Amino acid sequence: MASVTIDQVRKQYGAVPVIHDISMNIEDGEFVTLVGPSGCGKSTLLRMLAGLEDISGGEIRIGGRVVNDVAPKERDIAMVFQSYALYPHMTVAENMGFALKLKGEDRATIEKSVREAADILALAPLLDRLPKQLSGGQRQRVAMGRAIVRQPQVYLFDEPLSNLDAKLRVTMRAEIKDLHQRLKTTTVYVTHDQIEAMTMADRIVVMRGGKVEQIGKPLELYDRPANTFVATFIGSPAMNLFEGSIMDSLFVTRDGVGLPMPADYRGAMAEVYGIRPEHLTISETGVPATVVVVEPTGSETHVLVKLGSADANLVLKDRVDLQPGQPVQVAPDRAKLHLFSAQGIRVN
Amino acid sequence: MSDLAIPTLQAEAQRERSAIGSLRLIQTACILVIALVIVSPLFMLLIASLKDDRFQILADMGSFRAFWVSNPTLSNFAEVSNLSGELAFGRYLLNSLFILGCTVGAGLIVNSMAGFVLAWGTLRGRALVLSLVIALYVIPQESIIMPLVIMVSRAGMTDTFAVQIVPWVASPLYIFLFYQFFAQLPKELFEAAEMDGASVFRIYRSIFLPLSLPALATVSILMGIESWNQYLWPILVTQTDYARPIAVAIATFFGQDSIYWDRAMAASVLMMIPILALYLAFQRWFVSSFVGSAVKG
């Protein structure tokens, strides 16, 4: 196991920069998720850690050793690819043991290591099968097994669950987390799915446009997003944002809707008012709104309302009898407000 | 829908099925005619090789008797299967087999390596090299054959097996075929092997080459046919029986004074067998590929 340090790392293709001086430190045994929309540079950063992409500037250290010019095979890392990348002509056992074979390990050692990894991942009955004879979830587990067998210092996962269906994704998510808890190996996991990031990571790195927007524990990011991008990216349904300005003890939206502010607010001038859907409730003391869509999910009810001309999402724990077009009053929880400047930076 | 509409729909479906049936019948008839045109000369060759009278063979040509033999005999085959002497066709056949084996074996290695490097190597100017390789393909063999003869003659290579193998091992067409096949394999396979600790050569040998069975089969068949049918080049560079291939040797039956149709036919049948076997051995990989299971299917 080892820590990973990314120090002022930069990547550019010709004159076009895609990663802008990123720095972060990943502790030994930590599970860090890189999350962000498509094209934000998260996979490029992971590939730079793997050694599959050259870095244009800065330094990457794995276990204290600078690996900028070290070949992938000498970095002591293992990577699980989005497409699994299993060798189709080799059995599961051969796929898993290939790296050890290349290292020159004897047959007995390879078999023992493969058997141990197969036991961890419940792959033992499948060892003689070819990849084409496996389901998507089983192939994914083989890809993980191939990484485990090598006992690397760092695991790299590049959107490993994005090819699986929703149900299997939930199962595999738990399996990967369980695996990390057992092996305690430093893990860097790339995903565009914020639910995956929230549920699995010790810390999340939110990226956009080749830059880090915020690094923190999942609930820190959820409770105190540093800017409007993180605020809307983390959480589903996304945080409601209203543009406007503070007037006396109210935040008045551009439509003239007055939203309540904390009584003792003395912070900087906020021009964006954010409130998570579950912190908006239907209350007689709230501001007038009109129901647009009601979506019962069973455990909760999602309601889309019009607040002036702006849309607002509510997540209600109770089952409510609301109809589209029905007038309601919605009330934000003042203690859970998020206020941002005109540039989208958090101010409260 | 009214009740009347149902019989109308059924009648329409019936008409459609009948039209499809007629179309299939015409297609089958066309295919049969084409197959007959292709197969009949081969059948005629086989029948003629079983006749022991060369004048009778000539007389039968042009009539349906060419497709029938009343007293089949293998005497022609026995005559042309010697390993030495005037009719050492056994020897020529072995020569051809040796040349084919070496050319195809070496060709698979050299061309696949070149194709792999062009598809996955890190050399600068790969695109330029590939363009040059493709450009070379348009140069006809005949246009470079005399300079080649002079070169091998000066190198003292005439009348050897090497002279019939080495010049034909590397081919722009087969390099390009391998390049195309390797280039369409998923990048993640290369990267996964790289992460596993494989060298570039090991990736080629252990991952990409075993996956390229369809390309290997295609190149084996094409290269085998090309090598087997070489005629002009061996005539120019062989003078004795030592390394003479069967395609050249058969021509000796067609002398100025007489044509030995019976022996020529038997030798031709013998000549066909290895290349047919090569085709049958590899043809199933022409259309099969299991690369699809490498990544998410």
TrEMBL record, chain A:
SUPFAM superfamilies, alphabetized: MOP-like (SSF50331), P-loop containing nucleoside triphosphate hydrolases (SSF52540)
Coiled coil spans: none
A GO MF label: ATP hydrolysis activity
SMART domains in alphabetical order: AAA
Localization of this protein: Cell inner membrane
Residue stretches making up the ABC transporter domain: 4-234
Protein origin, superkingdom: Bacteria
Membrane topology annotation: Peripheral membrane protein
One GO location term (cellular component): ATP-binding cassette (ABC) transporter complex, substrate-binding subunit-containing
DNA-binding in keyword set: no
Any GO BP: carbohydrate transport
The entry's keywords: ATP-binding, Nucleotide-binding, Transport
Keyword Iron: no
PANTHER family membership: BLL2173 PROTEIN, MALTODEXTRIN IMPORT ATP-BINDING PROTEIN MSMX
Family (UniProt): Belongs to the ABC transporter superfamily.
Protein name as it appears in the record: Sugar ABC transporter ATP-binding protein
Lineage of producing organism: Bacteria, Pseudomonadati, Pseudomonadota, Alphaproteobacteria, Hyphomicrobiales
UniProtKB/TrEMBL annotation, chain B:
Localization, UniProt: Cell membrane
ABC transmembrane type-1 domain: residues covered: 93-282
InterPro entries: MetI-like, MetI-like_sf
Assigned GO CC terms: plasma membrane
Keyword Transmembrane helix applies: yes
Gene3D superfamilies registered for this protein in UniProt: MetI-like (1.10.3720.10)
Species name: Sinorhizobium glycinis
Major site of localization recorded for this protein: membrane
Record-linked Pfam families: BPD_transp_1 (PF00528)
CDD domains given in the database record: TM_PBP2
Protein name from the UniProt record: Sugar ABC transporter permease
